[in-house]
Structure formats: C-alpha cells, structure tokens
Amino acid sequence: MTGFNRRTAVATLGALAMLSAVPALAQDYPTRAITIIVPFAAGGPTDVVTRLVSEHMSKTLGQPIVVENVVGAGGTTGATRAARATNDGYTLIMGHVGTHAASVALYPKLAYDPRTDFEPIALINGAAIVVAAKKDLPPKDFKEFVAYLKANEAKLNQAHAGVGAVSYITCELLNGIVGIKPVGVPFQGTGPAMNALVAGQVDYMCDQITNVVPQVNGGTIKAYAVAIPERSASLPDTPTSAEGGLPSYQASAWNALFAPKGTPKAIVEKLNAAAAKALDDEKVIARMKELGNDIPKPEQRKSEALGKLVKDEVEKWGKFLKPVG
Amino acid sequence: MTDLFGNLALGFNTVFQFIDWTIPLLGVTIPIPVNILLCLIGALVGTLVGVLPGIGTVATVAMLLPITFGLPPVGALIMLAGIYYGAQYGGSTTSILVNIPGEAGSVVTTLDGHQMAKQGRAGPALAIAAIGSFFAGCVATILIALLGAPLTKFALQFGPAEYFSLMTLGLVFAVVLAKGSVLKAIAMIVFGLLLSMVGSDLETGASRLAFNIPELADGLGFATVAMGVFGFAEIIRNLDAGAEKGRELVQQKVTGLMPTVADLLAAAPAIGRGTMLGSILGILPGGGAVISSFAAYTFEKKISNNPSQFGKGSIKGVAAPESANNAAAQTSFIPLLTLGIPPNAVMALMVGAMTIHGIVPGPQVMQKQPELVWGMIASMWIGNLMLLVINLPLVGIWVQLLRVPYHLLYPCIVIFCAIGIYSVNNAPADVIMAGAFGLVGYWLIKHDFEPAPLLLGMVLGPLMEENLRRAMLISRGDATVFLTRPLSAALLAVSLALLILTFLPMLRKKREEVFVESEN
Amino acid sequence: MSETTGHAQGNPKKGLIRGPQDFWGGLALVALALFAFYASSDLPGIRGFQFGPGTAPRLFASLLLVLGAGVALTGLLTPGAPLERYHLRGPFFVTLAILSFAFTIRPLGLIIAAFSSFMIAAFGSTEQRWGQTLIVGIAITAFCCFLFPYALGLPFQLQPRFMLQ
Fold this sequence. Notes:
The complex is a heterotrimer.
Chain A (H helix, E strand, L loop, with lengths): L2 H17 L14 E5 L6 H17 L3 E5 L6 H9 L6 E6 L1 H9 L11 E17 L7 H10 L5 E4 L5 H13 L4 E4 L3 H9 L5 E5 H9 L3 E6 L25 E9 L4 H16 L1 H9 L2 E2 L8 H18 L5
Chain B lengths: L1 H14 L3 E4 L6 E4 L1 H18 L5 H8 L8 H26 L8 H12 L3 H35 L3 H18 L4 H15 L2 E2 L6 E2 L13 H18 L3 H10 L8 H22 L5 H16 L12 H16 L1 H7 L5 H12 L8 H4 L1 H32 L4 H20 L2 H19 L4 H24 L6 H4 L1 H34 L1
Antiparallel strand pairs in B: 1-2, 3-4
Chain C lengths: L19 H20 L15 H23 L11 H34 L7 H22 L14
C-alpha cells in the first residue's frame, strides 16, 4: 500500500467518527433506524404484513424501520441471522409459524431454538388455513371430502409449495389427522401450486386464506373448510373444520415480532406497545381484514402470550411433522 | 371490438388523469398528470436498475414497494410495472457494452451485442435493442388487450408434462446457440444443469451437493454465477497482457451511433419474428419467458442464409432476442391480470403491491377493477414509448462510456457487480461465490468453453427436473404421458427435428474432414 | 486454477496430445463429474414412480463424465489449440477486491468496502496513474453511497458498525 492510501483511510475514518451518533441508552431508544428481518421474499404474505405494520410502528417510534428480506431454507436462514444479531433492539425479526414453530420438528440441525433464543415481542396476525380443491372434485362438503380422501387415497394428488412451506406443513397436519398419505406434488411457491389447482392438474391443497379467497369468489376452485375456531369474514359461506366434523384440525399462518435473546426488557415493552398501537389503527385493521387476516385480541398481543403460543405450537407441529432431508 | 376500444379508452383515460395540485407558497393550482409522471419515474428507475449489473428487478421493486404506500393504487402499480419493463430495456445495455447479462433473458444478447460493441458498433446495437423492444412492447400490449382471456385458457393447458417438453426444447435451443464445437457446448449445458442441482431438493427437502455449507442450502443464484462467469471473468481476461491494448483500439474505432438503413432492413423481420415468439412464450407461467430470447435467437440462426455470422456481431442476433424478451416480459402480465396468479418473482411482488393497496388480484380483477387493469395496459404502451425516447439519446452517452480508459472502468464494474450481488440477498457469501465463479469463468475462457450454454443449463435445470418429477408423480410413473399428451408430443417432436437439423450438417462436415485427412 | 503457464507454448503438432486445450479442459470436466458423482452418491435414487433427490444429479454427472471424456478424446486425437497462458496479476487483485468487499461490507459499511475494493481492484492493471485512480475511486464511492442507499432505497449501512453503537 502506498502512503497516501493509508492517510486517506485515516482521514475518512476520522471524518466518519465525527458524524457518528452518540452511544444510545435504553430510554432514548430508538435513536436510529430499526431493521426488521423478513425471512421470506418481498411481496409474500409475511412481507406485506410486516410492511403494513412497520410503517405505522415507525411513526410511533419516530425512527425509520427498514425491512430486510433474508430468504432461504424455509425462512430459517433469516431467523438464524436474527438469533445471532446484536440484542440492542435494532435488529428484529418477523417470525412465523414455520420459522418459529414447525422448524423445530422439520430441521433437527436447526441453529436456534425459537423458544429460548428470542425475546417474544408481539403476535401480529393470524391467517386462517383453507382446505381448497379443484372445482370439479365430487365431494359437496367437508364431511364428504374427508370420506373421499380416505376412499381415494391412492389416486389423489395434493399440491404444496415445497417441503417446509406453510402449505406443506398444514396439509401434513390434515393428512395426519385423517390418516392418509396422498402423493404430494411440490411446486415452487404457492402461485404455481394455485395455478395447477385452477387448471385441475392436482386435486387439493391447503393454503392461507389470502391466496384462496379471490379464486373461490371467481369460481375457479372450491373451498371445503377454514381451519380456525370461527368462520372467517372473508369466506362467510365456508364452514369451519369443527362444523365439518374435524375439530382437531386447527391451523393458522401467524406472524409475530421477535427480538434476539437478551434484548433489554424496556425496549421489548416499547416495541410491544408500538406494535399494539399499530394493530389498533383503523387503516391497518382495514388492510389486514381485506387480506383475510385475523387481528389478535388485546390479551393475545402481550409478549408473554406470544411466548406461550410459540411453546404450544412447537409441541403441536412436533406431533405431526417428520424431519426433512 | 367496440369492447376493446371502450376498454382501451378507459385505460388511457386512467393514465391521462390529471390531479389538481396547489403549489404551497404561490397558491396557484395546476393540473398534474400523476400517472404519466409515475410511469416516467418507473421507466427511469427501471432503466437505471437494468443498467446496473446485478441489482435485480426483484430487489428494486421490493425496495420501492414502501415508497408506493402513499400513492393511489393505480399509480403505484403503473410505476412498478414501469420499473419492470424499464429494467428489460436497461438490461440489454450492460450485456452489449460490458458483456454482463443481468438476467437470464439477456444472456443471448451478449453473444452478438458485445461482439458488435467490440467492432465499434455499440451504438447501432443499443439502438436496435431499444427499437426492437419498443415494437415488441407495442404488439404485446395490443395482444394483452385483445386476447388476454383466451390466451389464459391456452396457458392452463400446460401441465408438468408440457413444461418438461418445453424445457427440453429449451435445451436444444441452447445447443444450437453454440458458436464453436457442439460437443463442448453440450458439455457446458450439462455443467450448468449440474450446478443447478446444488441446494435442497424441492420434493424431499434433501440437501444436494451443498456440503453442509449453509450458504449453498438454497442453491446458486443466477446473478451470482452470471456475474462470475461473464462479468468478473471478462474483466480478468481483459487484464491479461495485450488484451488491454486490443481494447483501447476498439474504443478508437466507434463509428456511427445509429443503425443504417441496411441495418434496419436486416433487423426488421427479425424483430417481427422475435416479437411473435416472445409473446407466445411469455404467457406460459412456468418459465416460458426465460426461454423466449434464445428461442428467438435460435430461430433466426436456423432460417438465416448465413448462420456463420451469428455470434460474430450479427444485428439480427441482437434484434430478435431483445424483441422476444421484451414481448415476453409484457405478456407475462396476462396470467396475473386474468387469473390473479403470479407467473414469476417480479409478478409475485406485483401481487404483493396490489395486496398492500387493498386489491386482492384474482380471476375477477378485470371485472371488479377495470380501470386498474386497463390503466396498467395503457400505461405499458406509454411506458414503452417513453423508454424509446429515453433510450435513444442515452445511446450516445453509453458509447461515450466505452471511451473511459479500461484501467479506470474495470474497478468500477467490479464494485458495481459486488454491490449488485450483495443486494440480492444481503449476503456477503454470494459475493465470494461470484468471485469464485469469476475464476471458473476465466478457466472456461482459457479452454474455449462458452459460458452462455452453461447459464442456460443452469436456468433450465430445475424447471426441467421439477416438471419431469411432477409429471411422473401425477401419472404414477407412466412415462408415456409425454407422448400421449398432444402439446407435449408436439414440443418433443420439434426438439428432435431441431437436433437432427443441427447434427446433420456436422456429421456431413466430419465426413468431409475425414476424407481430406485420408487424402493427405 | 493452479495449473499455470507450464504447458503454455507447445507446438500443437508435436507430442502425444494434439489439442492440449480441449484435452485438459475435458479432463477437468471428467474430474468435476466424478466429484459430483461422489458427492451425490449418498442421496436416495428412484423408488417406485418417485424420482429420488439423487437421480438427477447422478444422471447429469454421468452425462458430464461422458461429454468431458469426449472433449478430452477430441483433444487427444485431433489437432487443436495449445493451452493459453494464465496470468496472475489480474485474477489475483480482482479476486482480492471481491473478497475484500465481501468481508468488509457488513462490519465496516459501504463507504470503506466500496473504496477499498476499488483501490485493490485497480492494482490488477499495470497502467494506473495513481492520482487519477484515486480521484475516480473517491468519486465512484461517493456516487455509490448516494445511489444505493438513497436513490434506490436499498438497506445499506454506510459507516462501520462500531460507530453505530
């Protein structure tokens, strides 16, 4: 290296040091931009929800919130990065049913434990899982459908968006409860899977309500049941799984905000309050409802409630999912 | 027909909407064509993103999503669509000038485009790419308006078996692309197919050829490998002693900026044919758009009187694939607009954008939100016109860029590529991998292996394997589905015919060579 | 990458190998294919009508083996181009610049990563006039720092991480 290179480097560093901020204290938090890692592709359901909520949260907190999409390995790449991030409240993650519950059963070599490596902040939303089928499948209602599944196990094709995806795990749950093992046809994402269902190339799939509603309303596919306790306002004519005689089939694609383990309690509380405030905003509520999302009730928004949800969910999926790979 | 005009009128009305805006301090109210402005911004940003190597359309559209929060939905979507097709225009610029394809669609453009640049004809190459793209954009827009619904029905006929056969045809195209030895080209395709196997298996989740390296768990990204074997390898090659002098010479001999009448006459039919092929393939959601540009290139090469010109700076070799990939980019909106199902990652983002704005796209979006759909269609035409107006004057600037001494230009390309690759996943490991592929690419050049078939193999590999496995799963192991389904059988027949056409002359030549040798 | 100038300027007509470029290129592909075959050998193959995850990698590896052998054989039997000379300076500094960027971007931020990477890459050419290069380096770093985080809104951090805390 030549002399002036080093000199420039030193000068640059000096200038930067002057520009940089004073060390932050917890009560001043936040003093700079917060990053929320979304472990899925931009534009997907988790990403959309994160952007909706974080826009409102950044107004409350008075600092910008940057959404960083870190995609890979069913979302576990992003979750691993968040688990290892500095626990100063400036790196958070929007975890979901896959990364923070089902992953424990799916990936035995998982680099983090969703129950212990994160500070739960708040549950953000739940999206009901809908059992949908191609439009000319014979059964008329969910009861008939379950019977049909049992009778035609060998010839049925079930679409999913790849091992570990929400559409995969939730249908594994259904198949496990009904006691069948249909042929699973993998697609690269729910878009192509839905396309195959519309075209009648596969028989049924389980997917988040957001993706299903427009197709059901358009008459290109039919929905047999929603896997939540009460009917959804977006699909008022579709019965719940309990009404259809399968009450144990409960599945929702939830998203929740987490911080790395050891993030100061005061910061977690501040973030929890900002998230709860966003979920009370009429515009956010309206947008979330349009997408078919359930907004957690106030008692569900507490960080302790989220901690318990994660524990219960890890256990629930552990019963029905087998390790992949 | 009247329906069509009514719809288009609605679309243009939407695009030319004026919103009154009061200038804060002056108190004067002026009408502003918001949607036109958003379309222009989208086109400009798209061009910029396309020109910057590595920064993908997906990444930018994703990053700009939050900016569109405050906009009305129609305007937001018009802007995002503008970024998408703007990037298609911009992408050809880097392919031609510095031999770096930003996306699968522009790999083919490097073949003749960069050769033209080396011959001092970067101007005509860039101009013909812009003109071809414009023509393709116009035709595709009309096609979307006119035949959107029936074309969707056609696309739904494509099941796994048909896609497998289509991808087979794509691989045959990749063979025909070869400039030199066909054997080496096939070896490169297979190398690419093998590279595409790295990652986790879609059906079982099993990790393949990833050696427990977490960064490889999701496979090698296209941008990573493309930046490596094209971008970095090209730089390293140019740095070899002597090559640099050759480059400086190239920079001296830049001739005209615009294509001559002869150029235009030669390119016109190629543009027409490229547009046709691209429009049809673009509708197929499972990778049709990917193979459109090399289908067009192969077609031109096959019907040409002088196929040996291809790969040496033929203007047709730029015009056809550029028109095809722009037409395909445009018609790939059809499944989104008629079914609400996104055919590729960028379209998935558009769906995300729509949902953020409270529009849930589906089969009824055309009836429920006609001003949105037709506004977008009309904006595409206007956007293409803007892009032509933006890009033709830019040709001069780009060509000036070639006059920058190479020893200053190449470090800039290195950091732009590095930043671009990093921005795709925010992963430093991707940058390291691209560096490694740069060395692989350097080695390939030294052994006269072509990188283009490698990349095409890499893109087609997963599509081919997945669809093959899907088809076999659904048919429960009955391989005859590929022949009993008429569309699939037809595609396989075309592949076979093309292969025979490629190998026949080669065999004949080999025989002649053998005779010549024995005479000696 | 390590085979350097050894066989560089042989006359193609002389010796056993008539087309060294193809011969060694083909052999390397064969080696690669064998390696891929070995690496995918533990993956399950076809079961019933289901293709296992190992089927396609092994199929492509076998194909590459045959094709690589074909290329090598062509190089052995038919006259072809000699091996080209490998240079070290260009590949070394360009690769170093890329690595430097990869390792500095997260801890040290865009300003330092881009500038140092530019300067290292510049060493790859023998024709630098350093004053000029430095100016261009600073200008392009400034341009990048405006373009990516601000104009395109990408989540880049400009300063080193330690300055943020």
